[in-house]
Amino acid sequence: MIQDTIADMLTRIRNANAMRIYTVCMPMTSVAREIAVILETEGWIDSWKEASVNSLILRLKYRGAKQQPILTGLRRVSRSGCRVYVSAKEVPKVLGGMGTAIISTSKGIMTDREARNHRLGGEVICLIW
Q: Does the keyword Plastid apply?
């Protein structure tokens, strides 16, 4: 059984990205589905779909003839052993705004830009660049 489903999701994406694999299958949770929606709307992945009740399939994006990955880095920030919370003023900017931070707020899971616009802080789930 997987203890940290978000870390497992990010690791599967990171490994598939390194091997230039287009589709990634993973166990589906409500948080994983919301992260997949954010990744798609921000342009980090091509698409996602629910394959069955318990699985989620992501289609990764690559660019150019050499199939360079769009995602160059994923990092889990808040872990089960060490939670990281930030106030609305301390919401991180990833690479000066070129990347995305995913924040779990009282209004749901959102990007760093949305959290700043709504003036919300919360738990920093991961950083994507």
A: yes
Determine contact, residues 38/100, Cβ cutoff 8 Å: yes
| Distances from the Cα of 84 to the Cα of 11, 57, 75, 80, 87, angstroms | 19, 28, 13, 10, 10
Tokens of 76: 């889990």
CATH topology of domain 74-128: Dna Ligase; domain 1 (3.30.1490)
Q: Rounded to whole angstroms, how far apart are CA atoms 47 and 59?
A: 5
Distance, CA of 114 to CA of 13 (rounded, Å): 23
Stated pTM of the model = 0.91
Tell me what pLDDT residue 1 has: 64
Does domain 5-69 sit in CATH 3.40.50.10470?
no
Q: How is residue 41 written in tokens?
A: 């709307």
**Cα–Cα dist 24/72, whole Å:** 16
Q: Report pLDDT for 129.
A: 94
- Predicted local distance difference test score (pLDDT) of residue 59: 96
Q: Which of 128, 102, 125 is nearest to 113 (CA)?
A: 102
